[in-house]
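Translate structure to sequence.
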């Protein structure tokens, strides 16, 4: 613990929060970023996950789709819960049906997305478009669809939360909700430095960085 401060993004399987209580007792500045744990008495910096889930549904609606599924990450994480909450509120806003079986809890990796997509494809009724909780998970979904003989976007469409520098080289490139990663990282660093410099009087801040839609080959507006 011989450090001036800590930046941390928690793992999806983080359950035991005891270590953070110890950090707080020792009065060590800490800032959560990206995957945050709220209400622990530390500052946080995160992308607007709720807005991202809502924008994904809005884009799918503009593309003419009415039956949406969500490979939803882990419900034990803040990002998983908030992206799902935005997804659900988007469905309500545009009067689209919510099908519980079309929300599949997964992890955030390619393998997790692949397994979740296989589960969706085993259902009797299929959605028109799948919203992937992360770009890696969406790559796994894309692979599963292609292995099952489905063409994207012709047979089933995709939209992802998060972009990648490799996205433009994909065929098709995936329309996504882009989170400004560099902005998020810089904001978290600046917040930690401010906390260190003003340790005794610094007020807790919860910064939320806006996200934006980037339209590529999939889920295109009509």
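Result:
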């Amino acid at each position: 613990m011989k450090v001036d401060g800590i930046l941390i993004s928690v793992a999806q399987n983080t359950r035991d929060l005891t270590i953070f209580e110890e950090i707080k007792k020792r009065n060590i500045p800490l800032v959560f970023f990206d995957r945050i744990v709220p209400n622990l008495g530390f500052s946080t910096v995160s992308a607007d996950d709720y807005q991202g889930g809502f924008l994904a549904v809005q884009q799918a609606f503009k593309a003419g789709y009415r039956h949406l599924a969500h490979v939803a990450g882990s419900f034990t994480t803040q990002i998983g819960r908030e992206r799902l909450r935005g997804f659900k509120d988007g469905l309500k806003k545009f009067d689209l049906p919510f099908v519980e079986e079309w929300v599949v809890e997964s992890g955030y990796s390619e393998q997790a997305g692949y397994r979740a997509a296989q589960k969706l494809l085993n259902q009797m009724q299929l959605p028109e478009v799948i919203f992937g909780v992360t770009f890696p998970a969406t790559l796994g979904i894309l692979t599963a669809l292609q292995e099952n003989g489905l063409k994207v976007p012709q047979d089933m469409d995709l939209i992802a939360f998060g972009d990648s520098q490799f996205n433009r080289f994909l065929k098709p490139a995936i329309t996504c909700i882009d989170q400004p990663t560099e902005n998020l990282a810089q904001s978290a660093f600046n917040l930690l430095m401010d906390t260190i410099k003003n340790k005794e009087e610094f007020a807790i801040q919860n910064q939320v960085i806006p996200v934006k839609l980037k339209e590529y080959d999939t889920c295109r507006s009509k």
